[in-house]
Specification:
The protein starts with a helix and ends with a strand. The chain is 27% helix and 32% strand. The radius of gyration is 50 Å and the shape is elongated. It is built from three helices and 22 strands. It is α+β, with helices and mostly antiparallel strands and 390 residues long. Strands 1, 16, 17, 18, 21 and 22 form a six-stranded mixed sheet that branches. A six-stranded antiparallel barrel has the order 3-10-13-12-11-14. Strand 16 and strand 17 form a beta hairpin. The longest helix has 36 residues.
């Protein structure tokens, strides 16, 4: 038993000497590092910091923005006149060329005037008879008036002749009206252009019978210069644009192609807007008047109109600098005064060229990232490289 205890004591002493030797080795190594000036192993807390990321940047500023609104539109004629006969008769001649330009007052059709000439001659003969009768009655009334002073005629006889004079005067007025009516009908046998413009095809040919005020028109004259362009404005935009239509200066309207470039060299002016909203489409009709000297615009054409609005002061952000998040909202990366970036949501519902018109979210003076989004994260430190002003 004593031998076992002696072995255990010996083993314990060996462990003590081994631990003491290890301690001495570590101490010597530390002394050697201290003496030789060798660096000690870095601790995790003393790790090298992440370097700043170089990004493109710009400073936002308020600027004057010329606003416009693209609206679907359709052209309509300034004036349209359907040609209809006002007397009944046979068309003897067509006096125009189909598709040509006609002037106001230019004769277009000739209706057989013979029966209306006869009516005029008859009415004129009645007028001549009533004029002659009036002269006779007037002379008789003058004689009776003188004879009444000497009691050569009775008072009753004088009153009868005065009454006959009044009747003859009324007959003359009726005859004159009959002559005037016959003259009007005779004039209507020649159909004139009521307005200047381009006339379409003729629906009748010489020899056809036409009736007064018939439903079918003989032809249609359309005035093309100037011409109307009807714009359809969504009713939801009407309130926000109400101030744009106030004042004496009327908004300018231009026509553009699908790429947004001006497709028609003449500018139009907004004339008026409807007072009610179309319940089927939810739009308000607005009408602009355009000069059309070359007659390039024809009624019924669908065009793309650009309504130019009053300039405003606003902040613009390049579309390339705005990122749409997973929630569908736009955001920009704003660089703080300590060069730390963080995303900021913005409200922008209208574009101007290749920029967003900012409604809220960032103000003038804010610095945003324009390039290098893939290298940054919220809270990262960046080195902004500002774009050069053009």
């Amino acid at each position: 038993m004593s031998r076992k205890k002696a072995v255990m004591a010996q083993t314990k002493n060996k462990k003590k000497w081994m631990l003491l030797g290890a301690t001495v080795v570590v101490a010597c190594a530390g002394l050697a590092y201290w003496k030789l000036g060798l660096p000690a192993s870095p601790s995790p807390a003393a790790a090298t910091p992440t370097p700043a990321v170089a990004v493109g940047a710009m400073t936002l500023k308020t600027q004057t923005v010329a606003l416009f609104k693209d609206l679907p539109s359709r052209t309509s004629a300034y004036k349209v006149a359907d040609i209809r006969p006002q007397v009944t008769g046979i068309v003897t001649e067509r006096l125009f060329e189909e598709g040509a330009t006609v002037n106001k007052g230019q004769p277009l059709y000739q209706i057989d005037p013979a029966p209306y000439q006869a009516q005029y001659d008859s009415a004129f003969a009645d007028l001549y008879r009533t004029q002659t009768n009036l002269k006779l009655v007037k002379a008789k009334a003058d004689r009776y008036k003188k004879l009444l002073r000497t009691n050569a005629v009775s008072q009753q006889a004088y009153e009868d002749v005065v009454s006959a004079l009044d009747q003859a005067t009324a007959d003359l007025a009726v005859a004159e009206a009959a002559v005037a009516a016959a003259q009007v009908n005779l004039n209507y046998t020649k159909v004139y252009a009521p307005i200047s413009g381009r006339i379409g095809k003729s629906s009748i040919t010489p020899g056809a019978l036409v009736t007064a005020n018939q439903a079918a028109s003989l032809a249609t004259v359309t005035q093309l210069d100037p011409i109307y362009v009807d714009l359809s404005l969504p009713s939801r935009d009407l309130m926000s644009l109400r101030t744009q239509f106030e004042g004496e200066q009327k908004p300018v309207v231009t026509l553009s192609d699908e790429s947004g470039k001006t497709a028609y060299k003449h500018e139009g002016q907004l004339q008026f807007s409807e007072v009610t909203v179309d319940q089927t489409t939810g739009t308000v009709l607005m009408r602009a008047l355009f000069p059309n000297p070359e007659q390039l615009l024809l009624p019924g054409m669908f065009v793309r109109a650009k309504l130019h609005l009053k300039p405003i002061e606003a902040v613009l952000v390049p579309q390339s600098a705005a990122v749409r998040g997973s929630d569908g909202k736009l955001k920009v990366w704003v660089i703080g005064t300590d060069n730390v970036v963080n995303p900021v949501p913005i409200e922008a519902h209208q574009t101007v060229a290749n920029t967003w018109l900012i409604e809220s979210g960032v103000d003038s003076g804010a610095v945003i990232v324009t390039e290098g989004f893939q290298k940054i994260r919220p809270g990262a430190t960046v080195t902004p490289a500002f774009e050069k002003a053009e």
